[in-house]
Structures are given as structure tokens and as C-alpha cells.
Amino acid sequence: MRLGTALNAVRLKASWAIRDRFPDRKVVRNIQGVEMVLPWSHHLPDYTRGDSPYGKNLVALAAGLAATGDELTVLDIGANVGDSALQILDAAGGRVLCVEGDPYYFEYLDLNVGTDERVTVVEALLATGETAEALTPVRSGGTTRFEVAGESVGVPTVSAADLRAAHPEFARLRLAKSDTDGYEVLLVPAIAKAWADQPPVLFFEYDRRLTRMAGNDPEPIWDELAALGYDTVAIWDNGGRALGRAPIADLPRLSQQVDPTGPRDRRYWDVAVTHADDAAAREVLHRLVPETMGEHAS
Q1: Which 8-state DSSP code applies to residue 292?
Q2: 32 within domain boundaries
Q3: Overall number of domains in the chain
Q4: 82, 106, 195, 271: which could form a disulfide with 113 (CB 3.0–4.6 Å)?
């Protein structure tokens, strides 16, 4: 690590330590051109500083789907402070259904998008039978991980099927995003099944370490999505840099490259997955991520 990089890392950690002492202080920040209210301790302004590509992949994907002429309807699971919804609406318009189960971040979500008629907010955890246990939130740096608790902490839950039934205006779902710190491998297939007649593009964080910490197996998701008709995967590192595309059949092998102990930019992936019947979305992925994983590796 170069000296300048090391000094910046030290300064950043010092800043986080100070800001963590005032977790309830509300601040207004401009994140990649969009103004929002955040807790001072949130790391998002640090990740998106300067010309960082962090988070821009999801926004570009949404804009690309909107440009195909389809109505842009987005499901945002783990909506946090509403940053993804705000940036998507700013870049592409459309409508967003935001689901957030942590009451701490739901307050910020409501502050940021609660008066926007294009946004519907749901205070609940998206759950399957396997995740509908007594869970408690564990917060760090602007994100929430839920752990199994000894007793219920009163977090409401909703299944993907019930969520769709309660919001028929999102019956034709174009894009589903999930950032749930280890539960994606359960929730993303549940979303795909609930909307199987109108298969959305799926965008989620693939983190093998957090998945195992949540007590889940990171391996079966690729076969489960393939069985539902999904066939193409675009992959970005955790900083938002495109790594390449691959057929979903290759993902059980390729996903072994995600290494929590390896280089910082390979500790988790952002992935977008398109259905075999969705030629328009597949073309969007080809434009956003033109190389295959094999081409990139070479």
C-alpha cells in the first residue's frame, strides 16, 4: 500500500470513529448529484466521493431499462435511507417500492422519499419461511445486518407473494434490487418466484462471508435462478467496476473468486441477472458490461 493511500485510510477510520460517537446527528449530503438526509455516521458519502463508480451500476442499469420503453417499476429491498431510490428516480424516473425493516433507517427513508408520490414505502423485513425468525438489527457504517435473536424485537415481516398482492401497481416489475447483508440468497429467488410470470431483472449483492454469517448457503442461488429461467449474469466488484458477463451456468465456478480474505475489491460482488425471455434487458447488460469474464481475466 502506498503511503498516500495508507494515510487516507487512517484519516477515514479516524473520521468514522468520531462520527460513530454521534449516530443520531442528521446531516444533508449531496450523493452523486442527489441531495438526501443521512445519519452523520453513514459511510455512503465516503464511498461515493469524487469520481467513484460506487452505486452507479444500479442507476445505469435502471436508466438503461427505462430507455427500452418499458415502464420502470423497481422493488428496493433493504432500501436503507432511500439512496438507491432517489438516484434511480433522478436518472430514470419511474416508480419504486421501498422495503426497509430496520426502524432506525426507516426514519431516514421516510424523510427522503416519504412525500414523493412515485415512491411507496413498506416498513417490514422481506421474509421467507427460513428467515421469518426472531431477528434483531446489527448496525455498522450505514448498513444493517439482522441476526437471530433470543426473542422477537417486533420487526414486521412480509413474504414476496404478499408484497406483490398488496401492491398490484408493481405487478409488472422491471427491476428488483436486494441489499440485505447475507439474506439475498433466500430473498432473490423468492422475488423471482413471486413475479415468475413477469420476470424482473435481479440486482443484488453477492457476499459469501455475510451469507454464511447469516447462516445461509451461498452456493445454490445460481441453480435456483437458472431453474426459473434466468440465464445471463453481469458482474461488478464491490467498488462498482465492471468485471464481465457470464452465462449463469458458469457462476457456481466463477463465484468462488469472491474471497472475503482476498483483495478488497473482490470481497463481494454486485450482480445483475436477466431472464432468458428478456432480450431487451440482456442487451442493456451487454452495453453496460461488454466484456465476458474470460475476456476480462485475460
Answers
A1: B
A2: no
A3: 1
A4: 82
Cα–Cα distances (Å) from 194 to 72, 159, 166, 176, 252, in that order, read 18, 9, 12, 12, 24
Domain assignment present for 15 = no
- Give the residues of the chain that fall short of pLDDT 50: 1-7, 141, 295-298
Q: pLDDT (tens digit, 9 = 90+) per residue, 222-275? A: 999 999 999 999 999 988 999 999 999 999 999 998 977 776 667 899 999 999
CA nearest 101: which of 160, 156, 167? 156
3-state secondary structure of 236: strand
* In contact, 74 and 177? CB cutoff 8 Å: yes
Whether 63 maps to a domain, the answer reads yes
Q: Is residue 16 part of a domain?
A: no
Q: Which of 203, 260, 218 is nearest to 62 (CA)?
A: 203
Phi first, then psi, for residue 78 (nearest 5°) are 75, 50
Quote the domain boundaries for residue 142: 47-297
CA 261/CA 220 separation, integer angstroms: 22
- Phi then psi dihedrals of residue 88, to 5 deg: -65, -45
Q: What is the CATH number of the domain that holds 291?
A: 3.40.50.150
